[in-house]
C-alpha cells in the first residue's frame, strides 16, 4: 500500500515549485536611491516668498531667520521649514456674519452667528451688533511664537472689547449717534490689548457693519423711533417759528424804543430852543422896549396877514369907511 505520496520517498512532504526572482545589481539600486534623494533634496531645498509676505525659517522647530520676497534656499529633508506670513496685506475678521460672496453685490450669512452679535446694552436693552475688524501683521515673530492660537485669541479679544464698550452705552447711542464713538473706542482698547499680549497685530479700523434691535422687538423699536422723529420734527418747527417771530418782535420793539427816544430828544431840543428864544427876546426887550415891540408886531403881522383872505387897510385919517366895504357884493352873493 501507499500513503498517497506517490513517487516520493518515505519521510518527504509535498514538493513546492521553485520561484526565481530577478537579479539586480547593487550599483543600479544605489544609483536609483541617489537620484530619488537628489530629487527630494531639490524639491525641499528651494521656496518662494510672494511680494506681500515674509518667510520665517524654522530649523527643527526653532526660529533661525526671516527672508524677504523672492526665491530662497533652505536645508532639505524637513530640517528647515518655512512659514509664510502676509505682512503687507490687510486682513479682516468678521463678527456676527460671514461673507459668502464678495463683489459689487456681496452676500452675507448671519443665521448661525447670533452668539457673536447678540449683546446687552447699558440700559438693559438688547442689540444685534455686526462688525468687522481690519488689521495687519506688523511683527511676524510675535504673531507666530508669542501667543498660542493667535487668530482665535484675537477674535476673543475683539468680541470681549465690543461687548464691554456696548455694555457701557445705551441702546440709542449704539443704534444711532454713538456708532462712530463705539467703533473708535473698540479700536483703541483692542490695540492696547494686542500690544499687551504681544500679538504682533496692528488694528487699522473697526467698522460697525450693521446694528439693529432683535427681530422680536423691532416693531416696538420702530414705533419708538417714529415717535422720536415726530418729536424732533415738532421741535424743529417750533424752533423755526421762534427764529422767525422773535427777531421780528425784537426789531419792532427796538424801533419803537428808538422812535420814543427820538421824539423825547426832539421835544427836549424844541423846549430848550423855545426857552432860549424867549430869553433872547426878553433881553432885547429889556434893552430896547419900543424897538422890540415894533419888531415883534411886524413879525407877527408877517405871519398872520398871508393867511387872511380879504384884507382892508385903512388910514388913521379916513372919515368914511363904508364905501371901502363892498357890502353890495356880499348881499348879491347872499341873494343868489
What can you see in these coordinates?
By secondary structure, the protein is α+β, with helices and mostly antiparallel strands. Among the domains are: 29-86, no CATH class; 91-213, Tetrahydropterin Synthase, Chain A (2-Layer Sandwich), CATH 3.30.479.30. A hairpin with a 2-residue loop joins strand 2 and strand 3 (62-67). Residues 1-11 have low confidence and may be disordered. Helices cover 50% and strands 20% of the residues. Helix 4 runs antiparallel to helix 6 (179-197) and helix 7 crosses helix 8 (289-304).
Put the structure in a nutshell.
The protein contains 9 helices and 11 strands.
Ranges where pLDDT stays below 50 over 5 or more residues in a row are 1-11
CATH superfamily label of the domain at 91-213: Band 7 domain
CATH architecture of the domain at 91-213: 2-Layer Sandwich
Mean pLDDT: 83
Gyration radius, rounded = 57 Å
Q: Give the termini distance in whole angstroms.
A: 200 Å
Please tell me what the overall shape is: rod-shaped
The overall strand count is: 11
Q: Percent range for helical residues?
A: 40-55%
Q: How many alpha or pi helices?
A: 9
CATH class of the domain at 91-213: Alpha Beta
Q: What sequence of helices (H) and strands (E) makes up the elements? A: HEEEEEEEEHEEHHHHEHHH
Which percent band covers the strand fraction? Answer: 15-25%
Major sheet characteristics = 4 strands, antiparallel
Give the CATH topology of the domain at 91-213. Answer: Tetrahydropterin Synthase, Chain A
Amino acid at each position: 500500500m501507499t500513503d498517497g505520496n506517490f513517487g516520493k520517498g518515505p519521510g518527504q512532504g509535498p514538493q513546492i515549485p521553485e520561484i526565481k526572482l530577478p537579479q539586480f545589481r547593487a550599483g543600479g539600486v544605489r544609483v536609483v536611491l541617489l537620484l530619488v534623494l537628489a530629487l527630494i533634496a531639490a524639491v525641499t531645498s528651494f521656496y518662494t516668498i510672494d511680494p506681500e509676505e515674509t518667510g520665517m525659517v524654522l530649523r527643527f522647530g526653532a526660529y533661525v531667520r526671516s527672508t524677504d520676497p523672492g526665491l530662497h534656499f533652505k536645508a532639505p529633508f524637513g530640517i528647515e521649514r518655512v512659514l509664510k506670513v502676509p505682512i503687507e496685506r490687510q486682513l479682516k475678521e468678521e463678527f456676527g456674519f460671514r461673507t459668502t460672496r464678495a463683489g459689487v453685490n456681496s452676500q452675507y450669512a448671519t443665521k448661525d452667528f447670533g452668539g457673536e452679535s447678540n449683546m446687552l446694552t447699558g440700559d438693559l436693552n438688547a442689540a444685534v451688533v455686526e462688525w468687522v475688524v481690519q488689521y495687519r501683521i506688523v511683527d511676524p515673530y510675535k504673531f507666530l511664537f508669542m501667543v498660542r492660537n493667535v487668530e482665535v485669541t484675537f477674535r476673543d479679544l475683539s468680541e470681549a472689547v465690543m461687548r464691554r464698550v456696548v455694555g457701557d452705552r445705551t441702546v440709542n447711542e449704539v443704534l444711532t449717534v454713538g456708532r462712530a464713538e463705539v467703533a473708535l473706542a473698540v479700536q483703541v482698547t483692542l490695540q492696547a490689548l494686542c500690544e499687551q499680549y504681544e500679538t504682533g497685530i496692528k488694528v487699522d479700523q473697526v467698522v460697525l457693519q450693521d446694528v439693529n434691535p432683535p427681530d422680536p422687538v423691532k416693531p416696538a423699536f420702530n414705533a419708538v423711533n417714529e415717535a422720536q422723529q415726530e418729536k424732533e420734527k415738532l421741535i424743529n418747527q417750533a424752533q423755526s417759528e421762534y427764529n422767525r417771530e422773535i427777531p421780528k418782535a425784537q426789531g419792532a420793539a427796538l424801533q419803537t424804543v428808538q422812535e420814543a427816544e427820538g421824539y423825547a430828544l426832539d421835544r427836549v431840543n424844541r423846549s430848550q430852543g423855545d426857552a432860549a428864544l424867549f430869553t433872547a427876546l426878553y433881553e432885547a426887550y429889556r434893552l430896547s422896549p419900543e424897538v422890540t415891540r415894533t419888531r415883534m408886531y411886524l413879525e407877527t403881522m408877517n405871519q398872520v396877514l398871508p393867511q387872511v383872505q380879504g384884507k382892508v387897510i385903512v388910514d388913521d385919517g379916513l372919515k368914511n369907511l363904508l364905501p371901502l366895504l363892498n357890502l353890495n357884493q356880499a348881499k348879491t352873493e347872499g341873494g343868489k
